[in-house]
Amino acid sequence: MTRLLALLLLLFLTGPAALAQSQRAAPVLVPDVSQRTVEIRFSFTGAELLLFGAILYPGGRLPDEPADIIVVLKGPSQAITMREKQKIAGIWVNADSLDFRSAPSFYAVASSRPIDKLVDERTAAIYELGLSKLQLSPSSVSDTTEIDRFARGLGDLKGRNGLYLEEPGAVEITDGVLYRARLPLSARVVTGTYTAETFLVQNGRVLAAATREIEVRKTGFERLIGQFAQDHDVAYGLVAIALALSMGLFAGFVAGRIAVA
Amino acid sequence: MDIYLPIANLSVNALVIIGLGGLVGLLSGMFGVGGGFLTTPLLIFYGIPPTVAAASAATQVMGASVSSVVGHLGRKTIDLPMGGVMVLGGTIGAIIGAFIFRLLERLGQIDTVIGILYVVMLGSIGILMAREAIHTLVMARRGERPEARKRRHHPLVAALPLRWRFYASGLYISPFAPLLLGIFSGIITMLMGIGGGFILVPAMLYILGMSTQLVIGTSLFQILFVTMVTTMVHATTTHAVDLVLAFLLLIGSVTGAQIGGRISMKVRPEYLRVALAFIVLIVAIRMALGLGWRPDEIYTVTLQ
After folding, report:
1. Contacts of A190 in chain B (CB under 8 A)
2. Domain range holding A23?
3. Residue B112 to residue A91, Cβ atoms within 8 A
4. Which residue of B67, B223, B287 to mutate against A (max A Cβ within 10 Å)?
5. pLDDT in tens, B261-286
6. A211 and A236 co-located in one domain
7. Domain co-membership, A89 together with A178
8. Do A99 and B304 touch (CB under 8 A)?
9. Which of A39, A45, A85 to mutate to test the interface with B (most CBs of B within 10 A)?
10. Residues A65, A131: one domain?
C-alpha cells in the first residue's frame, strides 16, 4: 500500500511535466506490482499478487469512452512434451505425444471486461491475450486439429493446478485513471523471472503497454536444499542416507531404552 | 500444517505425510517388510510426482529397516557372505534399473510400467502368501501339524557354475544364484521404490533353500544396503530425493516400526501372514483398477 501512495505522490509531483510533454501523444501507463520478489519458504502455499497502476491521459483529460485494461502475468517459458493417454487393450497408456517449445509455466490474464469484447481475434493473438491465444510453438508438424486438442488439454491440466487462469472482470478501474487486479500465484509455480504486462485498450486497439518483472525464488532452507541437490548431488545423497540411518537407529535406541525400563 | 517440499515443488500437509509414514512403519514393524510397496502408491495418490515418490520411499525404507538389521546382527541371524553377494547384485541391479528408468521416462511409459509391475508382482506374491498362510491356519485348526518343508534349493540353482560354501545357511551353492536374485531386487527397488522384501523372502526360501531363521535378517540386510545404493543413484541421476519429504516420512515410520515390532511379538505369525497377504492383494487390486479406470488427467506434461 505504501508503494501505491508513493506512486500517487509521484504522479502529483511529476504529472504536470509529463503531461506537458505528452500533450499530443498517446496515453501512458504507469504500472506497478505489490511485490517485486516472491519468496518461496517452507510454509509457502501460494501468494497473491496485486497488479496496479495509473493511466496518464494526454492533457489529463479523460476520453469520452472509458478505456479498458488487460493485465497478463506470465512465468518463464518451458520446452515440454505433452502425452495423451488412450485406452489400449483395457488399460490407459500414453499413446500420442506432442512437443511444445515455449509453453509458459504460468499464465494468468485479467481484464476489466471479457477480452473478446475488447479486441478482435487478430489483436488478441498478437499480444497473446487469453489462454487460446498462447503461442506454444509446437515443434512437430502435425495437423492443426491435433495441436488444438493438445493445447486445450494443456490449458485444462494447468488450469486445474492453478497455473493457467483467465479472470475476466478482475481488473477494477477507479475514476478512469487508477486500476488494480489481484492474481493468485499457486504453490506449484516454478522459480524464475515473471513478467507482468499491462495493456490499455480502447476501440479494439492497444493504445499503450508496459511491463514489470517479478522474481520468484526459493529462499533460505528451500533454496539451499534445491541447490545442494543439484550442485553437490553425491554429498546430498550421503546426507539423505545419514539422516535415514541416524533417525532409524535413534528410534530403535529410544524404544530399546523404554523396553528396558 | 502445510510444508513446502523443495524438490517435489509443492506444498503438502506435514501431518498427513507423518501419518502415512507411521502407518507404513507400523506394518513394516509388524510384518518385517520394508513397506515401500505401500509408501510409493500412497504418495502418488496424494499428488507427489512418481519419481520423487519412488526416490524418497527408498530413503524411508532404509531408515525403517536399520534398527532391525542391528538387532539381527546382534542375534547372529544374518548370513553375511550370502547378504554380501546379494548386496553386490543389488548394486548392479540398481544401476541397471536407473538406465531402464531413464529409457522408460523418455518413452513416456514409466507410469504404466510401474503400474503393471505392481499389479503383477503384488498380485502373484499376495495370492501365494494368502494360499500358504490359509493352508497353515486350516491345518492348525484341524489339530494337524504342518508338514515339515523339505529344505532344498531349486534344481535351476544347481545348474549354475561355481560353488561356494555358505556356512551360516549350511548351503553349498553357486554364488550366482544370490547374485542374480540381488540384481533382480535392485532393478525393482529402483523402478518401484520398494525394498523388495516380500519378493526376496519367498525367493530365498524356495529358490535358494535357506532356513526361515536366517531369511528375514539376511533380506533386511540386503534391503538396507540396496536402498542406500538406490538413494545414491536417485540423488545423482534423477535428483528426485526430497529431504523434507523423506524426513517427514521417517518421523512417522521409525516410530511406527517400533510399535509394530511390539505388536508382532504378541500376535501369532500365521495371522500376521494372512493379514499381510490381504493388504498386498488390496494394493494390487487398487493398482489394477487404476490401470483400467479412466484417469483424472488424460494429459501429462514433462519438461524436456
Report:
1. 9
2. 2-217
3. yes
4. B67
5. 788 778 777 777 788 888 888 888 88
6. no
7. yes
8. yes
9. A85
10. yes
- pLDDT above 90 coverage of chain A, percent: 26
Give the minimum alpha-carbon distance from A165 to chain B in angstroms, rounded to a whole number.
17
Decide if B198 is inside a domain. yes
Same domain, A187 and A231: no
Q: What is the dihedral of CA B139, B140, B142, B145, to 10 degrees?
A: 70
B301 to chain A nearest CA, in Å? 5
Shared-domain flag, residues A201 and A237: no
Query: What's this model's pTM, rounded to 2 decimal places?
Result: 0.76
User: In total, how many domains does chain A have?
Assistant: 2
**Shortest distance, CA B112 to any CA of chain A (angstroms):** 6
Same domain, A252 and A172: no
B206 lies in some domain: yes
The ipTM of this complex is: 0.82
Q: How far is residue B191's CA from residue B299's CA, in Å, rounded to a whole number?
A: 22
The pLDDT of A235-256, averaged and rounded, is 88
Residue B264 is assigned to a structural domain of this protein: yes
* Within-domain flag for B302: no
CB-CB contact of A183 with A110 (8 Å): yes
Q: Say whether both A197 and A85 belong to one domain.
A: yes
CATH assignment at residue A97: 2.60.40.3880
8 Å CB contact of B235 and A153 = no
Q: Do both A146 and A245 map to the same domain? A: no
Q: Domains in chain B: how many in total?
A: 1
Report the b/e string of B21-58 with b at 16+ CB within 10 A.
bbbbbbbbbbbbbbbbbbbbbbbbeeebbbbbbbbbbb
The answer to whether B183 and B89 are in contact (CB under 8 A) is yes
Q: Which residue of B has its CA nearest to A234?
A: B236
Q: How many CB atoms lie within 10 A of CB B302?
A: 15
- What residues contact residue B115 under an 8 Å CB cut-off, 6+ apart? A91, B287, B290, B291
Give the total residue count for chain A: 261
Cβ–Cβ < 8 Å for B212, B132? no
Please give the distance of CA A145 from its chain centroid, rounded to a whole number.
Answer: 27
Span A22-34, average pLDDT:
77
For chain B, which ranges sit under pLDDT 50?
none
Question: How many angstroms away from the CA of B184 is the closest CA of chain A?
Answer: 22
Cα-atom radius of gyration of chain A, to the nearest Å?
25
Copy the grid coordinates of residue B135. Answer: 493352508
Residue type for position A49? L
If phi > 0 it is left, if psi is from -120 to 50 it is alpha, else beta; for residue A195 that is: beta
**CA–CA dist B272, B222 (Å, integer):** 23
- Alpha-helical (H) ranges within chain B are 14-31, 36-46, 50-75, 80-107, 110-141, 155-158, 176-192, 197-203, 212-236, 243-266, 269-292
In which domain, by residue range, is B198 found? 2-292
